[in-house]
Amino acid sequence: MVVRENFSLKKLNTFGIDAFAKYYVELDTLTGFQEILSDNAYKTEQKLILGGGSNILFTKDFNGVVLKNKLKGITVVDETADHYFIKAGAGEVWHEFVMHCVTNNYAGLENLSLIPGCVGASPMQNIGAYGVEIKDCFHELEALRIEDLTLHTFSNSDCKFGYRESVFKHEYKNQFIITSVTYRLNKRPVLNTSYGAIEKELEAMGVAAPSIQTISKAVCNIRSSKLPDPAQIGNAGSFFKNPEITADKHKLLKEKFPELVSYSLAGGNYKLAAGWLIEQCGWKGKTFGDAGVHKLQALVLVNYNNATGNEIYQLSQKVMDSVKEKFGVDLEREVNII
Ligand code: FAD
Ligand code: EPU
């Protein structure tokens, strides 16, 4: 176990922010985690668990220990007539894990292809895309409690998943290190092509009878066509959540803005496309030094080169203020701010 001091995190966050960690350590065993967490030299330091750094904005240096999770391994831990139970180490790269499942015909995660980051972060905000969220096939996870180094198992209901939400962002914030996640995947695929863009893409690909492999490919194609690749332009995907409003407020907004992009939710509320709201406020494609709003997806804030975390954060505040002023709608940041 090598603990580095004053370590640059620039290459370890997809925004490419040049923040420094007071201490930095990479861990590929559970005992490694237990060792550092019980070491008196670091006990009182703040801790930050880092996966792929694709949902974090550093607005300052991290004055504590950054623990880079490198726990690996993918195994079939159980099987029933209908399902495989696949357990993956938290440090596995999410897309590689999805490709492993797609290749082996373990169905359920194909719509979540090409999402950056690691398996361990997937339950943090119940990652979702193209009509699927991980909660749809999440079985359980194991996590180490930082306070007393005990291992705990969390079931699907324990995690209290919601839209970009889980118990780990609220009552258990900063208390657990997720060490592995087990997914319950289908032997007989239930294909989900309901998200309009998938059907169009499958048609363009000339696919008449979709499979989990062709759906995965279609999702990768769509994502690559509109989301910036962090290897080229720093970003953390959607910077804000799509806001939810009541039916009454939706009616008033729709009267004033007939083009409003919205989706009705079970229960009567509506979800608004934050990208549309931000675009209508004139932000799409705007740059301020090296910070900007992406030209193809207004929900994505970008670092073209050497923007600071604070510059991105200030820009996000201006975007939120203008959406509030024009539409009376509060945007909420999706990205974790450090
Ligand atoms: P990190 O950024 O490293 O960490 C995120 C948070 O989780 C931090 O608070 C961190 O401390 C905590 N954390 C990480 N690992 C652990 C662990 N093992 N135990 C405890 N806490 C942990 N998200 C979606 O939901 N849908 C999308 O479609 C999507 N598209 C994206 C597209 C792009 C181009 C980018 C850059 C991001 C996108 N994201 C999307 C956001 C991001 O990919 C996900 O949130 C992803 O799960 C983050 O994983 P990570 O390993 O990079 O987490
Ligand atoms: N739109 C605009 N202008 C824009 C962007 C979007 O008008 O600049 C409108 C369009 O009408 C479009 C609609 O918004 O049809 C929805 O856009 P898109 O399909 O790109 O999805 P999104 O709502 O912007 C969400 C997730 C993404 C996820 C996609 C696909 C959130 C916050 N974002 O984006 O997740 O990949 O759907 O399912 O829910 C992420 O979380 O980082 C992320 C990228």
Concise overview:
The chain is α+β, with helices and mostly antiparallel strands. It has helices spanning 30-38, 94-103, 196-204, 212-226, 247-256, 274-280, 309-327; strands at residues 4-8, 20-27, 46-50, 56-57, 62-69, 74-79, 83-89, 128-129, 132-133, 138-145, 151-155, 176-186, 234-238, 244-245, 262-264, 270-272, 287-288, 291-293, 300-303, 336-337. The chain has 3 domains: 4-69, Uridine Diphospho-n-acetylenolpyruvylglucosamine Reductase, domain 2, CATH 3.30.43; 74-186, Uridine Diphospho-n-acetylenolpyruvylglucosamine Reductase, domain 3, CATH 3.30.465.10; 234-337, Uridine Diphospho-n-acetylenolpyruvylglucosamine Reductase, domain 1.
Describe this structure in words.
By secondary structure, the protein is of the alpha+beta class. The protein has three domains: 4-69, Uridine Diphospho-n-acetylenolpyruvylglucosamine Reductase, domain 2 (2-Layer Sandwich), CATH 3.30.43.10; 74-186, Uridine Diphospho-n-acetylenolpyruvylglucosamine Reductase, domain 3; 234-337, UDP-N-acetylenolpyruvoylglucosamine reductase, C-terminal domain (Uridine Diphospho-n-acetylenolpyruvylglucosamine Reductase, domain 1). The chain is built from seven helices and 20 strands. It is globular, with a radius of gyration of 21 Å. The mean pLDDT is 97. Uridine-diphosphate-2(N-acetylglucosaminyl) butyric acid binds next to β13 and α6. The site of flavin-adenine dinucleotide has 33 residues, from β3, β8, β12 and β13.
